[in-house]
Amino acid sequence: MPLVAPFRTSFGTETARDVLLVRVVTPDAEGWGECVAMSEPLYSAEYVDGAAEVIRRFLLPALPRDVHAQDVARALEPIKGHRMAKAALETAVLDAQLRAAGESLGRFLGAARTRVPCGVSVGIMDSVPRLLDAVAGYLDEGYVRIKLKIEPGWDIEPVRAVRERFGDDVLLQVDANAAYSLTDARHLARLDDFDLLLIEQPLANDDLVQHAKLATRVRTPICLDESIESAEHAAAAIALGSCSIINVKPGRLGGYLEARRVHDLCRANGIAVWCGGMLETGLGRAANVALAALPGFTLPGDTSGSRRYFATDVTEPFELVDGHLEVPKGPGLGVEPIPSVLDEVTTATEWITL
Ligand code: NPQ
Ligand code: MG
User: Using CB atoms within 10 A of its CB, is residue 126 exposed (0-12), middle (13-18) or buried (19+)?
Assistant: First the structure.
């Protein structure tokens, strides 16, 4: 699916989203799960063709025919890693199960509100004026929080410019996607002047210890994204003092059930969480919005409207109202693909019977 504009991060520039959807068909219902892996292994080791391969070759054969969503993760445990692929499969099974039972995902997960406040992730731009135009547009659309993607050479100046132009009341945070090292601590501490909500994943994904050291050298709260692939990782990060905030992305964590576990753990430990985004279509977006309605999600997420990324979404578009998205109320994800749109963007399908 073409993106409305190129999205540049510290790891690369994306112009299109190669989406893998899993559709589970049971005698009672069908369900959808969106795999958030990118086309290339740049955000993490997973990539979309690899996810399709591991699903077809290892994950589906490991599932009993009548598996409950609550048992999927355990059935898939012998297969190491591939959490985004596992999440897509578990979500599709869960969606089918909830649709059959007539229960919404929000209700199943324990949603505490009917709508969620929305932030937006703003890519690295060619110039500060272009960035300011983009941020102005998003603020006009109602977004209640701005996240700037940063990298060495695009950090202090864009943050300063956004603060100067839009004032101190804008909720503002930055995301480095692991582009810095601990030797940049003094440089990153210069961000302390700008009253940011957080700095997301400044250092490498496998370095909880160095994040803990960095946390003693900067005042801006550290938030982890790539580093946290399970509730166990979250527990380790909390114990080490590696972060005071966690970005919860169900794909990265292996599914919505593990995401809820991270939420519960963080809530019990005074760690704020918010719901991340992976340029999902309306299917993944619906599930994220349901998750973001849980009580521990105390910061606005990257749960943007459909048009932030896609001119035409595969579902009815999610649209901001007063800076918020409504939690779907219908059974399961509460949304479904529009057949004609899905047909138009589909490049390949494969049916596997268990
Ligand atoms: C993040 N997402 O929080 C990610 C990174 C990201 C909304 O900033 C294609 C697929 C392109 C997934 C670019 C946001 C992507 C992607 C960036 C995820 O770190
Ligand atoms: Mg991130």
Answer: exposed
